[in-house]
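User: I'm curious whether this sequence folds into something compact or stays loose and floppy. Could you predict its structure so I can see for myself?
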Amino acid sequence: MNLNSTLIIQCLVFFALAWFTMTFVWPPLIKALDERRAKIADGLAAADKGKESLKDAQAARSKIEADARQQAAEIKAQAEKTAQALIEQAKAQTKAEQDRIVAAAKAEIEQEAVRAKNALRDQVAALAVAGAEQILRKEINAQAHADLLSQLKAQL
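Assistant: Here's the prediction. I'll summarize afterward.
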């Protein structure tokens, strides 16, 4: 074999193989690489969007939590205010009831005192009449009068 003919045939085979590769093999490989590159770029863009939406969601969550805490604090303050108002109202009702009971008790005590005074007056009047009766029945004697008055004092 001739070296020149071998070299020429190898060059022709090389160029034919290069042409075949560039025409039929290379375009699908380039297309597959471009599609892969596009998918990777889309995936990175989606990841960036996901990170941004995560940040937005976390900010929204933080705002919602802050609003919820504020509303809870307002509700708690309102409940405490209502409870305090109910306590004050109960105290006022208790005080009014206490004053009414005390007034009723004082009135009852005064009535009992009046009844006791009237009963005492009746008893004193009866004793005075009885003492006067006894004095008049006995003979008029100063010593006897003093003794009767001492007995009267003892009875009172």
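Summary: The helical segments are 3-137, 142-155. The chain has one domain: 3-155.
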